[in-house]
Automatic annotation (TrEMBL):
PANTHER family associated with the record: ACCUMULATION OF DYADS PROTEIN 2-RELATED (PTHR31123), PROTEIN ALCS (PTHR31123:SF4)
Species this chain originates from: Cryoendolithus antarcticus
Annotated keywords: Membrane, Transmembrane, Transmembrane helix
Protein family membership: Belongs to the acetate uptake transporter (AceTr) (TC 2.A.96) family.
Pfam families per UniProt: Gpr1_Fun34_YaaH
Main location: membrane
Protein known as: Protein alcS
Transmembrane segments annotated in the record for this chain: 59-78, 90-113, 119-140, 152-174, 180-202, 214-234
Single GO term (MF): acetate transmembrane transporter activity
Membrane topology field: Multi-pass membrane protein
Gene Ontology CC: one annotated term: plasma membrane
Localization, UniProt: Membrane
Amino acid sequence: MSRTHDEIETPPHKHHGVEELEDINILKPTPSHFEKLYLQPEQAVAGNLRLTFGNPTPIALGGFLLANTPATIMLMGWRGAGGGTGNASAGIGSYFYFAAILLYAGGIGEWILGNTFPAVVFFTFGGFWGTFGATLTPFYNAINGYGEDVAAFYNSFAFFLVFMAVLCLFYTIAALRTNICLVIILACFTVTFPCLSASYFYGAVGMATLSKSCRVVGAAFAFAASMVAWYLWFSMILEAVDFPISLPVGDLSKYIKGKSEKTKRDMV
């Protein structure tokens, strides 16, 4: 017996759009939570890739930490690390296979998700660690290429560190829209790189004492950056497993409003 039009039930798939929208709203992080996970304020992007793929940020941070932390200890010379001369070549493997690779991987992941700022930071710092590792590797002939003129190498490499400092300064300014932890990390490196470049410049003219002092001070700031980064990384790991305790990272996005937010407010 045929059923009338009124008796026909609405197909279940008619409600799928509403249900999916509700699911997306449940999964969508708050502005402060988003900034904590991805190190940038949320911006509109097409699609739902952020709900599909994992968070690449702790991957990049993990690689950075396992290279930067021991490198700073070698530069400071703790317990004879670095031979007392700041020789950080013992960590060449970690510079390539932890820092460079994982920072590049994290940068690619952030780029795919539409997170421009962390992608740029991870790519450039991955490039730094790859450059640092290559400089210490004899195959690339970076140091031996100058022959016995070590001062020429020192003066040349120091300028690379000078412009890393400029890069970090710009990053620090941009990070004022993210969180306190990231600002501290980048501000520390804004001090680290000038100190390390000064160490090379002093070393080029034979001022060993000043060279060592600048190296140790620069490494100390980089070590401080590592300690804050460990805290930031751990806060992300807790979020990844939905741990009942959440560590604050000092959200700044609610204090420094974006240009788009101000424009919307002015249009109202």
